[in-house]
Design brief:
The chain is an alpha+beta fold. It has a domain of 70 residues: Arc Repressor Mutant, subunit A, CATH 1.10.10. The chain contains five helices and three strands. A three-stranded antiparallel β-sheet has the order 1-3-2. Helix 1 runs antiparallel to helix 4. It starts with 5 loop residues before the first helix and ends with a helix. It comes from Tabrizicola piscis. InterPro entries: ArsR-like_HTH, HTH_ArsR_DNA-bd_dom, WH-like_DNA-bd_sf, WH_DNA-bd_sf. This is ArsR family transcriptional regulator. One of its GO terms (molecular function) is DNA-binding transcription factor activity.
Amino acid sequence: MAKHDPDLSLLFHALSDPTRRMMLGRLARGPAPVTELAAPTGLRLPTVLRHLSVLEEAGLVTTQKDGRVRSCAFVPQALQPMHDWLAEQRAIWDARLDRLDDYVMTLMKERNDGP
């Protein structure tokens, strides 16, 4: 994985905003029209569309227009790169903590076995 993966940056940016996370939470229950996503936010439609474009750019949401209604759907598999990155970071930190634990146990044993 590249040190600065642009796709990963787009995902973290998209999820950094509580309004976008709320929209994804709603879309996790099923597709919804933009007006339904906008209603609980209290935001104006252009602002909601800007949030949706950030989610689309990250690949988290797809939209389709049917007549005058624009519907949105969540793409949960788009979260996989983030999941993989977090799992990699967890493995790195778990290994570091295991080595620290081994080191502390060695020091304690040396202290107890000392003069």
